[in-house]
Amino acid sequence: MANENFDDFEDHNNLVSLFLSRAAIRGDQPFLWRKQDGEWVSLSWSEVARRVAGLAKSLKEMGLEKGDRVMLVSENRPEWCIADLAVMAAGCVTVPTYTTNTERDHQHIMDNSASRAIIVSSAKLAKSLMPAAVRSSEAEFIIGIEPLKVAQAGQLEMHDWADMVQGTDADVAALTEEMQAVTRDDLACIIYTSGTGGAPRGVMQHHGSIMHNVEGSGAVLREDFGLDDEVFLSFLPLSHAYEHSGGQFLPIGVGAEIYYSEGLEKLASNIEEVRPTMMVVVPRLFEVLRARMIKAVEKQGKMPFYLLDKALSIGERDYTGKKRLRDAPMRAFLSKTLKPKIQKRLGGRIKAMVSGGAPLNPDIGIFFQSLGVTLLQGYGQTEAGPVVACNRPKTGLKMDTVGPPLKNTEVRIADDGEILVRGPLVMKGYWRNKAETRRVIKDGWLHTGDIGLIDEAGRIQITDRKKDLIVNDKGDNVAPQKVEGMLTLQPEILQAMVSGDKRPYIVGLIVPDPEWALEWARGQDMKFDFAALQSNPEFRAAIRAAVDRVNADLSVVEKVRKYEFADEPFDIENGEMTPSMKIRRHVIKERYQTKLDSMYKGG
After folding, report:
1. What's the domain count of the chain?
2. 396 and 479 both lie in a single domain
3. N or C: which end of the chain has fewer CB within 10 A?
């Protein structure tokens, strides 16, 4: 692929045409990979094109018309990509939803989008979906990728995936011709936001929005890393705009192969097997990898830990511009010993890992950079394709920034510090919500709700979410995400949420790290009882010491004066985390309001 030039984005007016052009070039070469019976097996570009054309033809024959919405409920797998492209190829609009959605979530999205058809991958996922579908006044068709074993479907018409994806080369040729009429302005999908502040809203992404992201991100890969036989490992849910654009359509745009991870528990082994050149991930994964790497090195003895410490101190100096000549021998030694071992754990040929979806603590970026792993932080939101900006070596990696805007993207800072974005990437608006659309898009500028600045090199620096800013009783502003990020870097703390709006000081809810707590209990020769430990004065003092370490690096108004333990970890199941691993502040505050208020009693 190195000799092929995939920078012809301006020649394509929609995502399906982009895919078909790549499939015509790549032909029988592997495209989509999945693990099956312990072995990685692939579908070729040409076979995927035939299945896309076959499914698109079947959807139209079924009665779906231009603009109809089709809900897609599936884990990451080759059929996800085929279904997404086929829905768009049929002139319809994809409505991806999270596999973790409850019946209530499905009902809201189904009713709000008025989806006529639903593609669901398995009987397991159909359990929470079917009751909502039966109640829906709009849903007519259910397509099961695997057999659904539904005893009674009411008014719903059931269809089998295998029958619907049968396509021929003639179907591909006909589809290629048909797609010439689809423009960048046409609606491609409605992606529902993960709802950190309330009910999910449907973001209308047009073909041009995602094409803009693919072109801009592709330019970063080409200009900063050079394109070769690229391999992406798809891990984040494809129902999230970040993975949808960055983990599916970007690889399509640059003619790359996509491997579908088996899930978090097998991610480490998948990385070593697949040996990806690129991955898009969320900051939480880097935090977990960092903790595991440090723990693994500690267990190997004093010398490996000494080398790690040297790598990090040299990396810190190099990053801050304090490079020393006398570090050269140790730097060379580390490049032959420690760094290759770290890189092998990431497959050995990773060019860059791109972090997005939530803010990345700069210390995490410096940690990986010090070990020879290029870590790029991106920035954006679903309403903007979703990628607005990305760090890149070409402009200098500065870990407390998210880099310069992508190609053909305007960014400016409003008088109150809010980041505004304009360009082809900005959404058409929120589905069936004109009032909210008018609130966030004014004169073509998307009001992101994020606070930030632009440095002298044109890189964007995010300081916080506008709506999440804590304003204390004296009018001082505190960025909670900064404080929370620093707290969760401590080995003792798994999760944290801080509060203090209209209050005299900041307080925190802490979830201790279970692995650290187990080791602490063993060290004290105590029986491990996670709930009982939290009332143990010595255990509380150990957590207090971790909070105080963070406080030492915070201003007076940012310091966490008091803390209490959360009853359980924040997670998707209890509604306190979004599927993209962001905390839902309003949910957590509502649950723990009494506990939060108690920390202000007695001064």
Report:
1. 3
2. no
3. C
Last residue of a domain, one of 465, 498, 528: 465
Contact residues for 290 (Cβ-Cβ < 8 A; gap 6+)? 364, 367, 368
Give SS3 for 142.
Answer: strand
Please state whether the predicted TM-score (pTM) of the whole model is above 0.85: no
Tokens in use for 159? Answer: 């269809």
C-alpha span between 96 and 127 (Å, rounded): 17
- DSSP 8-state class, residue 394: G
For residues 188 and 301, state if they share a domain: no
Of 205, 235, 256, which residue sits at a domain end?
A: 205
- Spatial separation of the C-alpha atoms in residues 7 and 421, rounded to whole Å: 24
Query: Model confidence at 502, in pLDDT bands (50, 70, 90)?
Result: confident
What is the DSSP annotation of 71-121?
EEE--SSHHHHHHHHHHHHTT-EEEEE-TT--HHHHHHHHHHHT-SEEEE-
Let me know whether 453 and 478 are in one domain: no
576: number of Cβ within 10 Å: 23
Tell me which residue of 353, 460, 448, 355 sits closest to 398, measured CA to CA.
Answer: 460
586 and 570 belong to one structural domain: yes
pLDDT digits (tens, 9 = 90+) for 256-267: 999 999 988 899
Handedness of CA 210, 168, 145, 48 (dihedral sign): negative
Backbone angles phi, psi at 260, to 5 degrees: -100, 120
Specify if 254 maps to a domain.
no
Which pLDDT band, with edges at 50, 70 and 90, does 268 fall under? Answer: confident
| Tally of CB atoms within 10 A around 159 | 16
Pair (397, 508) in one structural domain: no
Q: What is the CA radius of gyration of the chain?
A: 25
Same domain? For 314 and 425 the reply is yes
Same domain, 367 and 489: no
- Range of the structural domain that residue 506 is part of: 470-598
**Cβ pair 539, 533 in contact under 8 A:** yes
List of residues 6+ apart from 225 with CB closer than 8 A: 351, 352, 393
AA identity, residue 336? K
For residue 67, which amino acid is it? G
State the residue for tokens 């007695």: 602
